[in-house]
């Protein structure tokens, strides 16, 4: 679970994820994401939003392949351009 909060303007992001690993080198993940606050706030410059993601990781150690679709929205100012 990822939780980010900006106490000065009340905006935040919450992203819980559930993973299942049926074998040593395969992991499947499902996540939900919520970003809340007013448009222009630090963590949600475009206003409140939500999304979900489904991903799979194949491999382990120094090599792995990860696919995710669609990504959970993350709107941290300075990282998104």
What does this structure look like?
It is a single chain. Helices cover 0% and strands 58% of the residues. It is mainly β and 81 residues long. Strands 1, 2, 3, 4, 5 and 6 form a six-stranded antiparallel sheet that branches. A hairpin with a 2-residue loop joins β5 and β6. It is elongated and about 45 Å long. Residues 74-81 have low confidence and may be disordered.
Computed over alpha carbons, the radius of gyration is 15 Å
Estimated helix fraction:
under 10%
Strand coverage percent? over 45%
Distance between the termini: 25 Å
Largest sheet: 6 strands, antiparallel
The SS-based structural class is mainly beta
Overall shape: elongated
Mean pLDDT: 78
Q: Give the total of beta strands.
A: 6
* Strand and helix order: EEEEEE
- Structure annotation, total helices: 0
Unreliably modeled segments: 74-81
């Amino acid at each position: 679970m990822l939780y980010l909060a900006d106490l000065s303007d009340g905006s935040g992001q919450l992203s819980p994820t559930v993973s299942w690993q049926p074998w040593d080198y395969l992991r499947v993940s499902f996540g939900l994401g919520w970003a809340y606050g007013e448009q222009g706030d630090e963590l949600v410059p475009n206003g409140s939003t939500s999304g979900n993601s489904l991903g799979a990781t194949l491999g382990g150690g120094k090599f792995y392949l990860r696919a995710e679709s669609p990504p959970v929205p993350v709107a941290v100012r300075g990282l998104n351009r």
